[in-house]
Amino acid sequence: MSDRIASAGDSVAPPVEGGPTVRLRLRAATPLSTALGLTLARDLRLAFRKRGQLVQPLVFFAIVTTLFPLAISPELSRLRDVAPGVLWVAALLSSQLALEFLFRDDAQDGTLEQYALSGQSLTWLLFAKTAAHWLLTGLPLALMAPLAGLSLGVPAAAVPGIVASVAVGSVALSLIGSMGAALTLGVKRSGALLSLLTLPLAMPVLIFGARATELAIKGGSFGAPLQLLGALAVLGLTLAPLATAAGVRINLE
Amino acid sequence: MAWTWFHRLGSPPYLYSLAARLTPWFAWPTLVLILGGVYGGLVLAPPDYQQGDGFRIIYVHAPSAWMSLMVYTTMAVAAAAGLIWRIKVAHAVAASCAPIGASFTLCALVTGSLWGAPMWGTYWEWDPRLTFELILLFQYLGYMALRSAFEDLQRADRASAMLAVVGVVNVPIIHYSVIWWNSLHQAPSVMKLAKSDMPATMLIPLLMMFLGFTLFFVTVLLIRLRGEVLTRERSASWIREAVTL
Amino acid sequence: MSGLAEFFDMGGYAAYVWPSYALTLIVVVLNVVWARRLLAKSREEARRRLAMRVGGSES
Predict the structure, then answer these.
(1) Measured between beta carbons, which residues in chain C are less than 8 angstroms from residue B115?
(2) Pick from C10, C31, C53: CB nearest B220
(3) Nearest-by-Cβ selection for C24 from B54, B60, B235
(4) pLDDT per position in chain A (253 positions), as tens?
(5) Distance CA B147, CA B39 (A)
(6) What region, left, alpha or beta, does residue B47 occupy, with left being phi > 0 and alpha being psi -120 to 50 degrees?
(7) pLDDT score at A17
(8) CA-CA distance, A216 to A210, in Å (whole number)?
(9) Could you write out the DSSP letters of every residue in A96-133?
């Protein structure tokens, strides 16, 4: 995972009108861990300035899960049966929504170009961004999911299982999504296209995640599908950042 | 010696004229094999012990399914070649593959559904092989959609190439899905069919169809490739001779 | 003639077998048509571009 480009010396983000003013000094000489920490911290800080944007996917998740009792039936016994599917489809769609602002702002104000020219490993920097993105969207989703589950008649004993499966699954979803986001960087209004590209690859996550949640709800052992989810997450961790960096480079050329 | 030939393939004018010359060599055998295969499958092959005449759908369904996987693999390999060695013609090949593969994936899904309806009692079943084949269709469509989203051809080439390469993981999944999961499909591979007691009158038309469809793919690819090459080589001087003849 | 009628009946599976073959035929034909149309369009475009360039350079 090392793809150092010829160093461009000191790189500072040009001031953008009305844009984020958190500038990052990334020199080729900066140790990788520092660069990663700075990138992660920057993304988290910027996200908290736009708290409204942060909350959107979570609100979307809440609304979508509310739609199903209205559309299907308010009977908890029926809802419990469809709860795994509802939770996971809603989580998947919410994470799609959230993907749009993974790279968008940085692509627009030239930060991504800076990262590519900084002499640091673009793969790692983008991984740090994806990690920040997961902390801001995937993890909150994993914490919200049990609440939605309870509203769908899920027993309290299933909560740990739901949190675990959504947490691990959302890691895989963030990584898969980062690839699609990288490929569609320059495309305007890329929402539907992004989903078309990402959802096919996300389907295995959906399958195993829903299975794990279903087993947790039924009170059984959900270790097997959870492990498969973990395997997908690990696979994503090793391969996705490379593809993401390649995709960003393609769009920056 | 072989490398000279390979390098010449990368040259658009050579490829254009070669494709034109090769097309009939693939087109005629395709016609013969497909017509022969259909005749053999519909008329000569005896009805199946369990499925009666309904099994004859295999002669269009199995080759279509084979096409969907084979074409995607070709597309992914060409895309990878274009990305890694920056061979522009490879991107033209990948672009030409997508519509062909998508149409045969759809064909495989529908003919499979028509075959499954009387045999399994349902038009659709979310078993692994069908589900992943449907995902493959979405992957083809996504590839074509991503291509058309870019105005810059080079970006379109490279971004869609990345997508094709990443998505190739679905092909072995589809292939091995009937082994990994207990599924409705349980269809043996053609190799097993060949080793089984399938009578020659049943097997040979099937093999003819497989080969015929494969050659059909090459034929259509050659035609599409010429169109792609012409569009990409906008102002090259060799075009004058090629199109005014 | 009952032989032909029997053939078309496909042992009762006619409603499944024939649409399958028909669809496959359509897919095959459409692929050829689509490919040839694209090629013709490319050739036409190339000819037009050449004509424009030649016309422009002839002052």
Answers:
(1) 16, 20
(2) C31
(3) B60
(4) 333 333 333 444 444 434 455 667 677 777 888 888 988 999 999 888 888 888 889 999 999 998 988 898 888 888 999 999 999 999 999 999 889 888 988 888 888 888 888 888 899 999 999 999 999 999 999 999 999 999 898 999 999 999 999 999 999 999 999 999 999 988 888 888 999 999 999 988 998 999 999 999 998 888 999 999 999 999 999 999 999 999 999 998 7
(5) 39
(6) beta
(7) 39
(8) 10
(9) HHHHHHHHHHHHHTTHHHHHHHSSS-HHHHHHHHHHHH
Q: Residue B196's pLDDT is what? A: 63
Q: Please count the residue pairs, one from chain A and one from chain B, whose beta carbons lie less than 8 angstroms apart.
A: 51
pTM of this structure = 0.84
Q: Is B191 exposed, middle or buried (0-12, 13-18, 19+ CB in 10 A)?
A: exposed
Chain C residue closest in CA terms to B65: C24
Instruction: Determine, for residues B223 and C17 on separate chains, whether the beta-carbon distance falls below 8 Å.
Output: no
Domain map (residue ranges) of chain B: 26-244
Contact residues, chain B, for A184 at CB < 8 Å:
146, 149, 159
Q: Where are the domains of chain C?
A: 2-57
How high does pLDDT run on average in chain A?
Answer: 86
Q: Which residues of chain B have pLDDT under 50?
A: none
Interface of B with A in 101-140 (CB under 8 A): 131, 135, 138-139
Alpha-carbon distance values, B201 to A81, A164, B51, B171 (Å): 50, 56, 16, 30
| Tokens matching residue C31 | 């692929």
Touch criterion met for B and C (3+ Cβ pairs within 8 Å): yes
Per-residue pLDDT reduced to its tens digit, A32-49: 888 889 889 999 998 888
Q: A188, exposed or middle or buried, with CB in 10 Å at 0-12, 13-18, 19+? A: exposed
Angstrom distance (rounded) from CA C17 to CA C28: 17
